[in-house]
Amino acid sequence: MGTLALTTVGLGLNLRAWILLGPHLHERFDVGLRDYVLLMTLPLLVAALARLPVGVLTDRYGARVTFPVVSLAGAAAVFGLGLAESLPAVVAFGSAAGLAGAALVVGGALLSRTVPYGRRGLALGVFSLGTVVAVVTSAASRGLGADGRRGALLLGVSLVAFAGLAALVLRDPVAVRRVRPPMRACVEMIRLTAATSLSVLYALALGGIVAIAVYLPVYLATAFRMEWFHALTVTGAMVGLGAAARLLGGWWTDRRPTPQLLTLCYTVAAGLCLVAATDPQRLTVVVIGAIAVCDGVAGGALLALIGKAARPDSVGAVMGATGAAAALGALVPPLLIAGTEWMSRSHATAWILLAAMLLLGALYVRTHGLRIGLGLAVRFEPEPGPTAMTVAVVREAETHLGAAAVVARLAELAANDELVVVYGADDPARLRPSANVLVVGLRERLPRHSIVGVGVPPHTGGLGPLAAPLGESVEAGEVAVAVTPTADLSGVAAELSSYLHADRVLRVSYTPAGGAGLHEVWHRAPAATNHG
């Protein structure tokens, strides 16, 4: 069984454990609908708290260790859930099963390290189909008994079997260097999520799916008097539809810019929420299904963006941090719906509030598109080595699709080398240093560095008086970006490298298949040694 197939099945089994509390609450103890919503948020909370440390440990020890451990922890909770006799014990074990929700981080980190850049978004989309596995497993276990006891025990056995298989089969190229202690890495990732909007956007997409999974059965049972089993069946179909849509989002991210897609998804979802608010009794299931598709596409695109942007040695921590923040944020929609329905006795208010949240997300993406891809500014620790004076040459065409990836590679260069970037552009807006994509991006990515943008006028025949200020910027430890028309790019780069006595000149490229690459154009030959 291939790595992708195995991790997808493992995710499905663990997600099934994650949501196993619901049937026990309703079938065995007849918990009220409002209490049901509140109790179902407990496994989500546990998963949110577990994702960051599990992601950090995945970077340290590899998925071959952490995937079996997470699955065994989920199996233990599931066994306890199946054997428990009292409501408090069921709630305790069902909440502990939320640990299995960290499987998304482990599998996602493994695929991000092993799948090539150009296919990574699609692979993470296929991996997200583990949710469909969970839905199918849930439906199949219904025949084992309505109270869920036998289904829980069988699921526990399946998780133990998967843990053994994963330990034998999985291979994870974990980085050899383990510089940061786990606690320090967790603190760094918390700071990262607090400084980026990516987690909020991911929570907005994930929140719609979580709201459907948690609250839709209650909504269908109260608003439409639907039988509980039928409500769960419809909910499973909607969640599965959202998971399948993640495949489209991941595929798109491999080929096209993400911000436009996110803007469209959030805007359409907001409009559908308003439709549901104005006429909640007509076509509700169709509208909710369309919302699930929009949220699924957006969630798949963002998960792919995280997997493509994070460094291999820290992708587990990044996915854990963003996943934890998103899971905590995803608790808001179901609680918002339940709270507004209880206070106003109307579902319309909740739909309107959700529409407002989605419209704000769409507006943010439209005005801050670049920052979405630059939100993962994980500190880079270069290998020990001599510092070089580097001139990096970038053409405007390389930043049309891969601005975030190009900026990330330049930021890594700046962490070790004295760096000057020469950017060739023909767009008048990009020729202004204050609005240039690399200047703005590097300032976002390197908040502790001073980034200086210098506009080189066209047809001047060289740098002229601008050479001295650029040299002074390098001496002061600043990262200088010389913005020039494309026709003058080669001449400006050659003159600048000569003036600065550069050690090498690099060309930065971007392709959807390989991401951002560095190509050496010229390097200074070592000085000849006089032996006498």
Automatic annotation (TrEMBL):
<dbReference type="InterPro" id="IPR052952">
    <property type="entry name" value="MFS-Transporter"/>
</dbReference>
<feature type="transmembrane region" description="Helical">
    <location>
        <begin position="90"/>
        <end position="110"/>
    </location>
</feature>
<keyword id="KW-0812">Transmembrane</keyword>
<feature type="transmembrane region" description="Helical">
    <location>
        <begin position="122"/>
        <end position="140"/>
    </location>
</feature>
<protein>
    <submittedName>
        <fullName>MFS transporter</fullName>
    </submittedName>
</protein>
<feature type="transmembrane region" description="Helical">
    <location>
        <begin position="36"/>
        <end position="58"/>
    </location>
</feature>
<keyword id="KW-1133">Transmembrane helix</keyword>
<feature type="transmembrane region" description="Helical">
    <location>
        <begin position="65"/>
        <end position="84"/>
    </location>
</feature>
<feature type="transmembrane region" description="Helical">
    <location>
        <begin position="228"/>
        <end position="249"/>
    </location>
</feature>
<dbReference type="InterPro" id="IPR036259">
    <property type="entry name" value="MFS_trans_sf"/>
</dbReference>
<feature type="transmembrane region" description="Helical">
    <location>
        <begin position="348"/>
        <end position="365"/>
    </location>
</feature>
<dbReference type="InterPro" id="IPR020846">
    <property type="entry name" value="MFS_dom"/>
</dbReference>
<feature type="domain" description="Major facilitator superfamily (MFS) profile">
    <location>
        <begin position="1"/>
        <end position="373"/>
    </location>
</feature>
<keyword id="KW-0472">Membrane</keyword>
<feature type="transmembrane region" description="Helical">
    <location>
        <begin position="192"/>
        <end position="216"/>
    </location>
</feature>
<feature type="transmembrane region" description="Helical">
    <location>
        <begin position="317"/>
        <end position="336"/>
    </location>
</feature>
<feature type="transmembrane region" description="Helical">
    <location>
        <begin position="283"/>
        <end position="305"/>
    </location>
</feature>
<feature type="transmembrane region" description="Helical">
    <location>
        <begin position="152"/>
        <end position="171"/>
    </location>
</feature>
<dbReference type="Pfam" id="PF07690">
    <property type="entry name" value="MFS_1"/>
</dbReference>
<dbReference type="InterPro" id="IPR011701">
    <property type="entry name" value="MFS"/>
</dbReference>
